[in-house]
Amino acid sequence: MSVTVNLENISPMDIDGYSRQLVSYVQGQSPKPNTREYFYYVDHQGMLFLDDSRMKNFTSCFKETDFLVFFFTRLRINKTGRYEKDFPYVSPCGVEMNYVRCDDRPVVFTHFVDKEIEEKVEDYLAYAHAGNRLMVKFEPERLCMLPKSGRVYHPASPQVGNVGLIKSSLAFEISKLFTFENGETQPPTHFRWKNKVYKLTNELWNLMDEKVKSQPYV
Q1: What pLDDT does residue 215 have?
Q2: Domain residues of the chain, as ranges?
């Protein structure tokens, strides 16, 4: 069955912060021999759904860890020439091309993990609800908060655009540790973490589209 989805009202931001209109597709469609296409959606909590699922909640999201690891490990910016504006990311899998759109960013960090490396415990951020199998090293000085939305971001892999979103419940706790020396209408300047104060680089600010920066929290 062909599906026509109005993306303009579903998701306030895409990779560049631009609203989207209508897109038609059929899950599993084959635009050419030996090729199948599927369409997915990542919400601001990092849960993965089939894009055309009517109900998007915990009961309908993908939960199988091996699948999530496989899917998100292959995630990258869509440069296929197909659906690039409406589904700005893809996760290729053999003859399948999985197109992905998201509420904000496709990588959403969900919790901290203490990882022991050479008898030293270091902080990592896990993402994609894959347990502790998908992680990046936590870099406190590189956190960035957008004052308008209150959303907090942390570096992610270059293949997904260098920026990941921090899950709202975790961001709420992190936000308590920010200092705003330039006022609360500007990004925070410092972050206190484990008895150390870090001066924030705010380098991710320059990677955000102006429309994303001005988007209020929804």
Answers
A1: 79
A2: 29-102, 108-214
E-assigned strand segments in the chain? 3-6, 22-25, 36-42, 48-50, 76-77, 89-93, 96-102, 108-117, 120-127, 135-137, 144-145, 152-155, 163-166, 178-179, 190-193, 196-199
Through-space distance between the first and last CA atoms of the chain, rounded to whole angstroms: 31
Q: Can you tell me the distance from the alpha carbon of 76 to that of 182, in angstroms, rounded to the nearest whole number?
A: 35
**Single-letter residue type at 109:** F
Token reading at 125: 């951020």
Distance CA(11)–CA(32), nearest Å, equals 29
Fold of 29-102: duf1285 like fold (3.10.540)
Q: Decide: pTM greater than 0.85.
A: yes
Q: What is the amino acid identity at position 108?
A: V
- pLDDT digits 0-9 by tens, 67-88: 999 999 999 999 999 999 999 9
Q: Decide if 135 contacts 156 (C-beta within 8 A).
A: no
Express each pLDDT in 31-69 by its tens digit: 999 999 999 999 999 999 999 999 999 999 999 999 999
In sequence order, what are the beta bridge partners of 86? none
